[in-house]
Write a structure and sequence with these properties.
By secondary structure, this protein is mainly alpha-helical. The chain has a single domain, classed as Multidrug-efflux Transporter Regulator, Chain: A, Domain 2, CATH 1.10.1660.10. Helices cover 55% and strands 9% of the residues. A two-stranded antiparallel sheet has the order 1-2. The longest helix has 32 residues. The chain is extended, with a radius of gyration of 23 Å.
Length: 130
């Protein structure tokens, strides 16, 4: 199928499909004219990529783990022995990032709470009191 059909089937833009190809996530065939031709299994590959991106993996990590995943009962299942260990490391990286974001939010909350409230009769920055 050509790129327009791939866009329609996956909901992913042409630009993203080209990016996935640059990252080694897709490898469409090329016609002599240079047009990309996608296979039916590429639709499933794009869906896997989207799922893994949503899970917080980088495209670099996805390129490494994608060959070791298969779909079974609508779930991604690892088939390479070392993949589970790598995915656990990725989960730990995401967990650390979540903790860092929560700490940042806590600091921001403290700054907000220390400021004047809108109902205390003080004007917010940039507004004049009546």
């Amino acid at each position: 199928m050509r790129i327009g059909e791939m866009v329609r089937r996956t909901g992913v833009s042409e630009r993203l499909l080209r990016y996935y190809e640059e990252q080694g996530l897709l490898a469409p065939d090329r016609l002599p004219s240079g047009y990309r031709v996608y296979r039916e299994e590429d639709v499933a590959t794009v869906r896997r990529v989207r799922t893994l991106l949503t899970a917080g993996l980088t495209t670099e990590t996805i390129a490494r783990v994608l060959p070791c995943l298969r779909e079974q009962d609508r779930r991604l299942v690892p088939i390479c022995p070392d993949l589970v260990m790598e995915l656990r490391a990725e989960r730990e990286r995401i967990t650390r990032a979540i903790h860092e974001l929560q700490a940042s939010r806590g600091l921001l909350d403290a700054v907000i709470e220390a400021g004047p409230t809108m109902d205390s009769g003080t004007a917010s920055p940039g507004t004049a009191m009546a």
